[in-house]
Write a structure and sequence with these properties.
With about 110 residues, this protein is α+β, with helices and mostly antiparallel strands. Helices cover about 40% and strands about 25% of the residues. α1 runs antiparallel to α2.
Length: about 110
């Protein structure tokens, strides 16, 4: 991967982390102010995705999906479960990043039982 794409991937991951913090903060803002901040957040997400698309990159969010051992993610709490447990992705710590050729960077997730 080129140095430029590596830098963009790093910025995308940090933007993802910041977005998650911003979403939690937004829940604590007074309801009459939420709309303005939510619109700015949506604009930021749109611009981020446009920039990533221009570089042939995309973030993949797997939250809420059934966990499969073949997913391109590292489950940081997999040892907490038995092999026969049905699991879902509860939280993405780092997003999965893909391009047209496949996986650029695996994601990191937290799992929970269904």
């Amino acid at each position: 991967m080129s140095e430029l794409k590596e830098s963009l991937t790093s910025i995308a991951i940090e933007s993802w982390r910041f977005s998650k913090v911003f979403e939690r903060m937004l829940e604590k803002v007074e309801p009459h102010e939420q709309g303005r901040y939510a619109n700015q957040y949506k604009w930021f997400q749109k611009k981020l995705n446009e920039s990533l698309n221009q570089a042939d990159l995309r973030l993949v969010n797997l939250e809420g999906q059934a966990y499969d051992i073949g997913m391109a993610v590292t489950a940081i709490n997999i040892e907490d479960f038995d092999e026969e447990d049905e699991l879902i992705v509860e939280q993405m710590i780092e997003p999965l990043i893909m391009n047209e050729q496949g996986i650029v960077k695996p994601g990191t997730v937290v799992l929970r039982k269904v």
